[in-house]
Structure formats: C-alpha cells, structure tokens
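>> received
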Amino acid sequence: MDEAKFGVLDYIVLAAVMVISSFIGLYYRFTGGKQKTSREYLLADGSMSILPVAFSLMASFMSAITLLGVTQENYRYGTQFVIINLAYVISTPVAANIFLPVFYKLKSPSVYKYLESRFGVVAKLAASLAFSLQMFLYMGIVLYAPSLALSAVTGLSFPGAVLGVGIVCTFYSTLGGMKAVLMTDVFQSLLMIAAVVTVVVNTCTQASLSQVWEVASERGRIGFLEVSPDPTVRHTIWTQAVGGCFVYCSLYAVNQAQVQRLLTLPTLKKAQAALWVQVPILGFLSLTTSLAGLCIFYTYRDCDPAAQGRIRNSDQLLPLYIVEHLTQIPGLAGLAVAGIFSGSLSTVSSAINSLAAVTLEDYIKPCVSISETRSPMLLKFLALFYGVTCIGMAFLADLLGTGVLQASLTIFGVVGGPLFGLFALGMLTRRTEQVGAVTGFICGLVILCWIGFGGPKPPPPVLPVSTLGCNQNSSNFTPQQTSPLLQGTTEASTTESPVTAEYFYLYRISYAWYSFIGFMITLVVGLLTSALYRLASKTTVLTEDRLLASFLKRNDGISNPDRSQHIDEMKNGRDEKECRV
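>> returned
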C-alpha cells in the first residue's frame, strides 16, 4: 500500500476546526458574566437551553475511542453490540426521575457533596478520589489512543496531534468555562456525526445498503438474538440490555461530568427533557457508527487490512478507510479526521471542567476559605493544570506502551459500578449509614479490580476475515498485534480459543457485566454491613427526605424544615439514638 497522506486542504479543514473551538472559548470569556463567579464557570449560571446540553451529554459519552472502537466492534465481532441502545431507553427514566431530582435540589457543582450530606466526609472523599483517579488517567488516554491510531495511518504527526488537540481543548475549557465546553460540544457533535455519515454515504456510492447488509450477513456479522444466559459470553441480549443499563446509569445518573451539565439548565423539567432529547441523538450516532463498521467491512471483505499487515491493529480501520477512500475529494478526509478528534476534544474538556469542580469543592474549600471573587481564577488555574497534565499523560502513555493504556481503560470500567451502587445506597435506602456505605464501596472496587486486572483472560474469538482478494506480492505481511482501545475487544485469532475452561471463571466473565457486578456488591455489602453496625451499636439512622428518591419520602405531615430541626437535635445529643445525614 502506498503511504497515505493528507492533502493541504485536509490540514486546513483540521486547523479550522481547532480555531473555531478556540474562538468559542474566547467568545464566552468576554461575553455574558465573563466567568466572574464559580457558578457561571462551573454551571453556566443555570442559563443553558435544552439542545446544547443534550448534544453535550452525548458528546461526552461518545469519545474518539468509542468511535474507533464501535466501528471495529461491528467489523470484527458483529452487530450484537448494537442492542445496548435498548439500555439507553430503558435507563433514562431511572436517571431522569430517581437520581436527577435529588442532585438538582442540592444544586452543588460537585455530586459528591451529596454523599457528605447523606453519609459523611469519608464517603465523599472515597468516591471523589476514585472519580478523580479515573478521570485523571482516562483523559490522557482518550487523547493518546486516537492520536496514535490516526498518526499511524494518515501520516499526521503524533506529537503534533497530541499537542494540537490538548492545547486547544485546554485553552477553551480554561477561558470559557462550562458555557464554552457546552457550545463547543455541539459543534464537535455535528463533526462526529459527519465523520461516520461520510463513511456510510461514500460506501453507498459503490454499493447499496442492502448489498452491505447482505455481505455482512453472509460473513456472519449480523446477529442480534444471542440469548445465552452464560455470563462468560461476551455479548448477548442480557449483557447489552441489562448490563448496559448499569453502564448507562453509572454515566448518566451519578457521573460528575454528566450531572454537572444537567445542572446548567434553569429548571428540573428542562434538565429531564435534556436527558430524553440526548437519547435519540446518542442512538443515531451509535447506530450510524455501527453501520459505518459494516460499510468498512464491505470495503475490505476480501482483503482484511490487519490480516494483510497494512495496519497493526483494527482500531486503525476507520482512519485507514478515511485516507484510502475519502482523499479523492479535497478536504473530506480532513473533515472526517476532525470528527474523530472532536470526540477527544469533547471528552477531555468534560474531564478538565469536572475535575476542576471536584478539586475546588471537595478538596480545597473544606480546608481553605476562598471568597467567591477568587474562586473563578483558582478554577481557571485548576483547569489549566489538568489540561497540561492531560497532555503529559498522553506522552507518558506513549512511553510506557499498551500496558498503561489497558490499565487506564480497566480502571474506568471498574469505578462506575461501585460509584453507582454508593449513590443508590444513599438515595434508595433509608437506614444505610457511612460505615456500611464505604465498606460496600471499597469491597466493590477491590473485587472488580481483581476481576478487571487479573489474568490471564481468554481472548474473544473474532469472526473470520479473508485475504483472498489481496495482492499476494505484498511484502509487508506482518502478524496482527493486540488492540487495546476498547475494553474487552482485544484481538484474537479467527478461530475459537482452545478450551476456555482453562481460564479462571471470574476472568472469563464478560466485561459488559462489570458495572452490574460492582453495583450489586456495593449494594449488598453496604446493606448487610449497615444492618450489623446498627445491631452492634444499637443506633438508628434517620435521613432527610431531600436526600432520598421521591418515592421514598415520608408522608407523615412533618415538613422538611421540622424534620431537619429534629435531625439537628439528634445530632446535638438531644436524643439517645444516632443520626447519619
């Protein structure tokens, strides 16, 4: 294969996207309230409208890693993954009607303030530290991975890609605050959609969608009805529709970055509406990206690039398609690559802003008194610090290799379930106290880390590919290497692994169940530990209604102020029973 390179217009398009994103940050730095309060910087003064927030919610979820991963997922493993879109619809009422109203009433820039009110400082710190570590590692990886994949295929400079995207993202996130992050997310969302739609439309100029579907079906890529109850089967209806619900809730119901976006809306009803509006946007991009994977498979159906050695791993399939099939129209390849990088921009900016919020609210303010006039400047310094750190993490990952990459992705998958379980213990139970909640959370984290990091794990068998149509004189035929980009989608040979029973059972469990497992361990251990603690200490837990899901609130004629006063009296020792708020 001739070395694929960008044209001048492709670079111009890519640069234009970066410049536009930067100008959005500058615009919101010098307009409106000019980011003079922490509320405006972190919550956009609660003045945003539904559509920008909906697009931003989707953009934060669909990173560049997801775009590259979902296309290769459908190419290598088939369409069973698509069923996860059902989980988005099933779970949205849970996030919108059970968890969001509690957060919205508290109006805190940090969701972990809730845990302090409900359980205590230890629970807050345990959760916020886990989140901070998760995002600290992940934001560097979400910049590193696509930069590496694109530079390996397109001829883009890897250091240039990392520095360009990292600096631009840090620039507009630091100057413009949450308003800039939200509005750039809208722009970048459209670019992400344009990137995958371009792949589909370009393929349709050579073959109809029915032909693409027919070839995918003949080669075993089409499948939606795997109903095996075996939790070691990688993707089934149950892993996607049930396990996917816990993944979705861990990201949309209790995740700092997503809840912070929802709090930028002026009313609870508008925040709930934004959650619902993002579902079809997310579904469209998810389904279109999956279809793009099938289109790429149709294009390379008789000459698999990875098996031939033209690419090192299958996360480079989408970039390879872009440079081989979209460069005929000047600027089109640049637009598609800009769409992939937009996934990195949106996710990194989300991480920068949310980490700044958590650092100020959970770590600095409890220790140091900071005036409201000084908070915005400190937040900008924190955003700058995390942006620079993100760039440094991307280069560090390049030095340390794929081991740190896989570890970072595993940490991201491991933390979500226990965090969701911890918040569920707070909002869905009355009598869970801090000892039980923290014990359950730590147990969930430890067991999932064991499952996630433990090994060896059996490689999932990929579907067969063909090289019959390749140029047999090609001299660059090299073995395919492992792809670390998508959790649970490491490469394997095109045949089944010998005997999966040779592997320890917990290491064979599908990655799609990790959030569910973490949630259940946290919930069960938390409830049992709390019950034992109450028996041993002979104490009773009384929780304010404002900290509970609406369906658990008492209807006993006692107003919330009266109940809060009674709780305060108990906390001051005017009652023999103990209270945990």
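>> The CA atoms of residues 11 and 334 lie 6 Å apart.
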